[in-house]
Design brief:
Blueprint lengths: L1 H14 L10 H23 L2 H16 L3 H4 L3 H23 L4 H6 L7 H6 L2 H11 L3 H11 L5 H8 L3 H20 L1
């Protein structure tokens, strides 16, 4: 019994042996994954347009959270996660751009990131059309719309993620929604 208790008490020390953070992420990491994993993945995919890069960006975000003191991010976890993910996704895109020169053949061979048949079956025609229209928005408008409606972030949190002012976020969202309403009415 004593040996069993000693081995159990040694496990936490061993699991954090190579961890740079004082806590190892633990409950905060689990909570963040439960609350934000799907939205964070969709956001990364919207930035990278590639499943492998999106997965890498999200994975790096979780690793960074595991190494961060929970007290430093607990009160602004969602914008912190999206900001880290955004930075990593953009870094990965820059790295890919350096590795492969873009040409017409490469662009034509790029995988289509439109929803698959299972998703289309679940989404109504109006929602599918709205998503397509969001894709036609300028990049800065598209990003704030996704952060607001897919990520569920507030204007301030979006401003923190994108390094824009809160009023600029509001303007971009207003302009994007006005454009989408006009296109949906047609």
């Amino acid at each position: 019994m004593q040996d069993h208790e000693q081995s159990r008490s040694a496990e936490p020390r061993m699991s954090h042996e190579n961890d740079d953070s004082p806590t190892g992420g633990g409950p905060l990491l689990r909570q963040a994954a439960e609350q934000h994993a799907p939205a964070l993945h969709r956001y990364a995919l919207s930035l990278t347009r590639r499943e492998d890069l999106a997965r890498d960006a999200v994975q790096e975000t979780w690793l960074r959270l595991a190494k961060t003191d929970p007290e430093k991010v607990a009160d602004h976890l969602a914008p912190w996660l999206f900001r880290v993910c955004r930075t990593r996704a953009l870094d990965l895109l820059r790295k890919e751009a350096r590795m492969k020169p873009a040409d017409d053949a490469l662009i034509a061979a790029a995988p289509d990131v439109s929803p698959g048949p299972a998703v289309r079956a679940e989404v109504s025609d109006a929602a599918a059309r709205a998503l397509k229209l969001v894709g036609s928005l300028p990049e800065n408008q598209r990003e704030v719309v996704r952060l607001k409606f897919q990520g569920g972030l507030s204007y301030k949190e979006i401003a923190d993620v994108t390094a824009l002012s809160v009023s600029n976020v509001g303007f971009l969202l207003h302009t994007a929604l006005k454009s989408l309403r006009a296109q949906l009415a047609e």
